[in-house]
């Protein structure tokens, strides 16, 4: 630990030192911090082991379930972290890590993060955050304007008003979505006559008062799993989240949506909210937001847009029209830790109307007193860090046109990759990129042809074999450690909506080059040959179909 | 921004640079980071302005609600952050900042935080966190053992089991409490016969199936406001959170608790959970946990302990008996960002039974697949950062005996301060410290005497005047910027449960000295004299009471 003796020991004086004396310039921790600050990519390439160690093996290093009775020196422990943790962590910022929504970070955010953490503000209240409170309100205002584009008057009226809130910062999209639906539920079941509102009397009383037999939130079958969680926690039950079918482009069918709403109403179930998705997690598709908005007005539903992924597209004047209609949403989720390139833990929910959040407002005695500007009176979370500072800094340093370049580059890279996949004989593009996501699979031309002409039974059988191959390739590629794509299951209409495993690619890292994309395909092609039995079976099945 | 030209401009090449080239050693950002790393306290003393600027003034710097169209140089923006944000932030680690639960951090956590942020893992799934997943499970296991002390066999069976979970990491105590009550609600309204469980069918169906007229969670009137939020979001309604009266020491009255439960049951309201508080936010009091546990067994209630603050006391073999009974809880909330000295954003909820969380388990296609060890299948939040690494490191470097010293020192400091206050003629200790929190107020001996003998009407009047003075002193002291205590409202039985404003003090910063405590009182005494009219009124009222 802190003392320099051979055996670490604990005294109150030595403890005080860790609060007052920083690590010296020669300490392991300082050196590692420096190396990583100078060239993160190189540092991680050197320290993360290339070939994946099985999780079972890694777990052995994390098996001891007691808090140590003996302190460790900072340097010793840092070395231990390097050997056991960092070496088996995931290089999420690698240009060839294109499987998930976690990407590279701008360098300046790392020292800024350290400053943010050292300041250790708590944004739940002004007394522990002071200037961070107006800063967070401003960031919410900026993103509100990005979505809703109200005039100066609007923002000077509401942005810093104690009684109002343009949204809430939160740890991520899940909390943002829950918050939006919480607000929507409470507004749908508000006080009326003697009934004091669902927030006071609860859901059972509310249902009896309003005479509903159930509540529903509608979203396309491609909606994020957090919405199911929201439906559970808010008391609607997972069945209260009604999945609406999508078209061939993974977008909600407005007609099916309308029909479902009418059906629900007939059964005396209140459809209080519809969620439009702007950038589905699996395919990056964008629902027809304008049409959803119309339906919501017609049926008096809260219109929420889950733009956790796609929201940042609004930064690009070239592509923001893809999200047309979002400005009609009552609430919008945006994750800054996705395409705004902020470290993990920066979600936001925005509300069109500055008084929408009144339905979830709460107060306490020692903080959040009536009339105070404490942010905590309108957040689901309590204590929160000063992450807003990182979003603020990134928006000033990168600026809107900078983000535009990043967004445009990602979308264009996805188009390039889609084109590249289509040119290959042995790959199939399963979902076209709308944003910078696409899905595809490895399937030799002969096999694809067989699948096309196969009878239903045969098709299911052959498709299952191809799924097996997809899973094999994806796992093997991940374990080899050179590049990473994720996988998911889709039901493409082109293949009779059969369960289809696909490679899923997210192209948000500005450092991912065209060459990397070419080599990802090349590697997958080679891996496919490493399952000779499965390949032989697939080819034989295909042949028997073609020859029949 | 990133280019070195006089006018910052944006090109894709310049953007790539911010992802690949760190700030140089001479940049403002690097220099600030260095200064702050070398001596945080001095840095903040130099940069945070001494006298508080009114919030209205600060807001002027954060009034612009548009995302900038022009990029800024990193150095320029850093200077801007220093001038407008850091200078008006709160020095939460100052030894004289004793008003809230945010304290100093050990130095080694700052570089470690930077490493954690640079790695940018996402703990929702193994594919973006690998070794961080077993690490987080181990940290949960360690804290589980601290509370429940199960044997090695237990932890080797469950700690890394894909189908089980000893708890969940989360952004803070609020999410931890909501998670605990969510689990409790779902277990209380589980599937039975044709009913598929509240998580599937929702609360309305559940109530009809079970035939309840309402649901309730019971907690003492000193329970944290997050519980009210939980009751709202979970659909019980705030009225479903039933406040039970406390004794003179701010602890729940077990008899009153039993009575309330019986009453609720008579009205066909299901009391599915009781929350015991181990360290109330306002006074640091600990409920009689053993007695609550018995009552919970008798009435088949989930027993949750909110030990967000007090849980760390278990680290001390000298004081852990204060929390006796916590090992009987079904679930426990602990915040590592409180008395475990971790930066903001490290909450945890632990469950005694490894399968308790099954009732909130959820899956998706692209992650959290059945049988996977992805942590996200048992968390309320989705994407999350690798904060667990900081808890892990702190537990190894400080160790249990180190935490014991810190906890003991805080409790003993509070005893010292309580003693010091009691010795003063013009101060009154309102709540004795059980942990390291206490409350008191400034009230000259004559005034206190008058209050004692006053008739009810007079007492209310005089007490209100004293409240006014308390508020004045607290605000003034905060604005002067030398030291900070918070304030809250209690209803002490000693004063007929009158609304009583008090100074609230949290003594968790190991750097807070006895001298600082002496000077806090001295400063308050002086400030009191700066309200001569109010003081005169108080004295005159007292005199008229005494002379009557």
From TrEMBL, chains A, B:
The keyword tRNA-binding does not apply. Belongs to the group II decarboxylase family. Its cofactor is pyridoxal 5'-phosphate. NCBIfam families: NOD_PanD_pyr. This is Glutamate decarboxylase. Gene3D superfamilies: Aspartate Aminotransferase, domain 1, Type I PLP-dependent aspartate aminotransferase-like (Major domain). It comes from the Bacteria. Keywords: Decarboxylase, Lyase, Pyridoxal phosphate.
């Amino acid at each position: 630990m802190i003392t320099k003796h051979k055996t670490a020991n604990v005294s109150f004086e030595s403890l005080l030192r860790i609060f007052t004396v920083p690590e010296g310039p020669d300490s392991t921790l300082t050196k590692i911090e420096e190396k990583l600050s100078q060239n993160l990519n190189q540092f991680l390439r050197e320290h993360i082991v290339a070939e994946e160690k099985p999780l079972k093996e890694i777990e052995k290093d994390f098996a001891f379930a007691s808090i140590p009775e003996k302190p460790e020196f900072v340097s010793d422990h840092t070395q231990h972290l390097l050997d056991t943790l960092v070496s088996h962590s995931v290089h999420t910022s690698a240009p060839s890590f294109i499987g998930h929504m976690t990407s590279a970070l701008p360098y300046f955010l790392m020292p800024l993060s350290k400053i943010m953490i050292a300041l250790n503000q708590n944004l739940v209240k002004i007394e522990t955050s002071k200037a961070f409170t107006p800063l967070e309100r401003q960031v919410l205002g900026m993103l509100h304007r990005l979505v809703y584009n109200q005039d100066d008057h609007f923002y000077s009226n509401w942005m810093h008003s104690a009684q109002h809130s343009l949204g809430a910062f939160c740890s991520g999209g899940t909390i943002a979505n829950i918050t939006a639906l919480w607000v929507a539920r409470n507004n749908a079941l508000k006080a009326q006559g003697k009934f004091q509102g669902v927030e006071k009397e609860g859901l059972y009383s509310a249902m009896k008062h309003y005479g509903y037999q159930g509540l529903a939130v509608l979203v396309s079958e491609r909606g994020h799993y957090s919405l199911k969680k929201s439906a559970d926690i808010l008391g609607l039950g997972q069945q209260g989240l009604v999945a609406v079918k999508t078209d061939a482009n993974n977008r909600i069918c407005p007609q099916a949506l309308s029909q479902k709403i009418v059906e629900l109403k007939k059964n005396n179930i209140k459809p209080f909210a519809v969620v439009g998705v702007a950038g589905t997690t699996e395919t990056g598709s964008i629902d027809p937001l304008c049409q959803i908005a119309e339906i919501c007005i017609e049926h008096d539903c809260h219109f929420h847009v889950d733009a956790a992924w796609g929201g940042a597209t609004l930064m690009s004047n070239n592509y923001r029209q893809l999200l047309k209609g979002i400005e009609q949403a009552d609430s919008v989720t945006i994750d800054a830790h996705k395409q705004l390139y902020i470290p993990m833990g920066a979600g936001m929910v925005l509300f069109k109307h500055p008084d929408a959040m009144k339905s979830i407002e709460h107060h306490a005695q020692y903080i959040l007193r009536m009339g105070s500007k404490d942010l905590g009176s309108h957040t689901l979370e309590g204590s929160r860090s000063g992450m807003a500072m990182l979003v603020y800094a990134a928006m000033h340093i990168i600026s809107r046109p900078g983000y535009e370049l990043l967004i445009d580059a990602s979308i264009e890279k996805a188009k390039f990759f889609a084109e590249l996949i289509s040119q290959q004989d042995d790959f199939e593009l399963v979902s076209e990129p709308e944003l910078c996501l696409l899905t595809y699979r490895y399937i030799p031309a002969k096999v694809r042809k067989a699948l096309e002409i196969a009878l239903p039974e045969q098709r299911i059988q052959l498709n299952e074999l191809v799924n097996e191959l997809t899973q094999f390739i994806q796992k093997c590629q991940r374990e080899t450690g050179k590049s990473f794509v994720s996988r998911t299951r889709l039901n493409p209409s082109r293949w009779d909506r059969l369960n289809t495993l696909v490679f899923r690619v997210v192209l948000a890292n500005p450092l991912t080059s065209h060459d990397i994309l070419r080599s990802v395909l090349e590697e997958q092609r080679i891996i496919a040959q490493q399952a000779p039995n499965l390949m032989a079976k697939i080819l034989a099945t295909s042949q028997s179909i073609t020859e029949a």
